[in-house]
Design goal:
The protein is mainly beta. It is built from three helices and 14 strands. The structure holds dtdp-4-keto-L-rhamnose (TDO). Its EC number is 5.1.3.13.
């Protein structure tokens, strides 16, 4: 397991050692001690899995305090463009994002601590799995519109398949205004 830093402090891309043999592959998708050595000390208490058809975009989602979640994300089958948006008001990279490809070949893990918005675009029919450090809390759910020009995320598609709920998410400006209230 090897971690690679990203331009945003706290966000990590983690490369597991994928062992191939005549039967297929094997890798440790979660190993507490090795992740701790890479600086990830979180206690994950919920695992989620979703299937998304090619062209589906989910996000950008987060949970507000006190139900904030760190996430450890990976693709079981398929390929996504996965995006983390820095929503930590005190961060020098507040409002900036980092995008990365997660797939079922490299099996890269994407770690985002509390304070990030998360979204992904399915580039193929995809099963995505992620660990979370807090339970789902519908009352604490927050989000930002995937296509907000201020975030300027290059999704590479003009009209992805987005849920009605996600189409109505606030803009980044509305989000920042809500912080100042
Ligand atoms: C997130 C979540 C949803 N649900 C339910 C609510 C709803 O009926 C159904 C689908 O929920 P959603 O439409 O919110 O699912 P989805 O759009 O996949 O939401 C997820 O998006 C990605 C980007 C994230 O980062 C996640 O934290 C989560 O917000 O599942 C749970 O039961 N537990 C959960 O933890």
């Amino acid at each position: 397991m090897r971690a690679s830093l990203t331009p945003i402090q706290g966000l990590l891309e983690i490369y597991p050692k994928v062992l191939q043999d005549a039967r297929g592959y094997f890798f440790e998708s979660y190993q507490h001690k090795k992740l701790k050595e890479l600086g990830i000390k979180d206690l994950f208490i919920q695992d989620n899995q979703s299937f998304s058809s090619k062209g589906v975009l989910r996000g950008i989602h987060f949970q507000n305090s006190p139900s904030q979640q760190s996430k450890l994300i990976r693709v079981i089958k398929g390929r996504v463009l996965d995006v983390a948006v820095d929503l930590r008001p005190d961060s020098p990279t507040f409002g900036r994002h980092h995008a990365t490809i997660l797939d079922d070949v490299e099996h890269k893990l994407f770690y985002m601590p509390e304070g990030f918005g998360h979204g992904f675009l399915a580039l193929e029919d995809t099963i995505l799995a992620y660990k979370c450090t807090d339970y789902w809390d519908p009352a604490a759910e927050g989000g930002i519109l995937w296509s907000d020009p201020e975030l300027a995320i290059d999704w590479g598609v003009a009209s992805p398949n987005v849920s009605e709920k996600d189409q109505k998410l606030p803009t980044f400006k509305e989000f920042t205004n809500s912080l100042n209230r």
